[in-house]
Structure formats: C-alpha cells, structure tokens
Amino acid sequence: MEIQWPLVIFSLLAGCGGATIAFIGVSEILGVGKKARIPAAITAIALLIVGGCASVLHLGQPANIMAAASNIFSFSGISLELIALGVNVIVALVYLLLARGGSEAAAKVVAIIGIATGLILTFFVGNGYVMESQPSWNNVALPLAYLGSGLACGATLFAALVGKDEEGQTKMRNLVLGSIAIALVTFVAYAVTTSLTENTVVLFWVGAVVVGCVGSGACVWFSQKHPLALWAAFVCTIVGGVCLRATMWLLGTGFLSFFATASSRMLLGA
User: Fold this and answer.
1) Buried b vs exposed e over 103-117: b needs ≥16 C-beta within 10 Å?
2) Superfamily for domain range 5-264
3) How does the average pLDDT of the chain come out, rounded?
4) pTM of this prediction?
5) Which residues cross the membrane (predicted)?
C-alpha cells in the first residue's frame, strides 16, 4: 500500500505532542524540569496544531472536511482522535495560562490531568487504524507501538528542553530511558504479532528499532557528559516513529482511501 504521508505526520506529531503534555504532568509530580514546562507546553500546542493540519490535508476535498467536522461526535476511531486532539490543546492552553500567572496548585492539577489526556491521544492515533479489513493492522499491538513511539518522542523532547538544568537530571534520564525501553518492547511485540515483508524488514528493524530505540537510548546515556545529545536522541525517536508508521502502511493490503473507506463503513457516522 502507498504510504499516506499526511497521516504519518499527523500521528507522529500528535503522539509526540500528547506525550509531551503527559511528561509535563510527570515533571510536576516528580518536581523536576520546572524551567522546561512552559516551553514544553508551547511546543506541544504547536505540534498538535501542525499535526491536525496534516490530518486535514489528507481529507483533500472541502466536502470531506465538512463531513468529518459534522460527524465529530460519532465516537468512531477517527472522531476520537480529533476529540482527543482538541482536548489536549485545551489542557495545554489552560496549563500555560495557569503556569504563567495563575495558581501553582491549579496548574499542577491540570498538568496531572494532562498525563491521562496525553497518553489517551497517543494511543488513539494508532487505534484508529485497527480494522478487520487490514489483517496486519487488526492487532492491539499496533496502537501500543504508537503509544511507545509517542512516549519515546515526548520524553526525549521534554528532556532536551530541560537541557543543562541539573535539578533532577538523574530522575529525568531514568524516566527517558524507561520510556525508550517501553517503545522497544512495544515495537518488538508488533513485529512478533505481524508478518513483516521483505521491503519492511530493514525499515523496521534498522529504522524503528536500531535507530529509534537503541540509538536514542545511547544518545540519552551520552547526554550525561554532553547535554546536546538529548536533541540527537529526540531526532532518533522521530526517525524511529516515521519508520514504524511507514512499515505499517507498507504492510497494508490494497489501496486505501482512508476518508472514503471510513465514510462507507459509517466510521464517521455518515
């Protein structure tokens, strides 16, 4: 199947943005990375908006966009993604306002709520592809792999924004390494439960696993001496996320017009 790049970009940026919001909440609980929270919230909002625009580009025609908007509360896989996207933008905006001039206690509560909303979005952007018509996608391991990818991206991004701030560096590094380990486990689980083809073996094992997980983990480890290595870790997780999603599309059977298929099967309530 042809790779649908607008949806690759959407799921990657939305997952990263949602996970970044989640890590803001985690940092509030652990009391680390205080200086990075506001930049992280702004970055997360930007990622979600750009990702949402990429999703809209995939719909193509204005009629398709209007149909999707009119059926937003059908609670299909696609509508759940869009609802979760909007909720996370609101959560990040409210947190940003409270953190910059409101109650610190209220900001912490909103940030903790963001842990749930962020992780839900990161899972939903993968769960929307689970369907019986695509055997290689009809597996809970797929959205879990998307969740793992989002966690790795969000963790490395937040850690990179923390940068040279020595406060809680050990906790932060361990948290990031743990997130990358989760991504590795979910990636391998997806490969084990799905039959990779000749044109996806290298893409998945080298791109998603070696670069996306092992490479990013190594960069995080080296960041003990060179903090800028955290940005390299983030780049590695992005590469891994793209390779994971490209693998999924290449494993699909036949040509799939996502909007047309969703509409014909009433996934959008049409």
Assistant:
1) eeeebbebbbbbbeb
2) Formate dehydrogenase/DMSO reductase domain (1.20.1630.10)
3) 87
4) 0.89
5) 6-26, 38-60, 72-98, 105-124, 144-163, 175-196, 202-222, 229-251
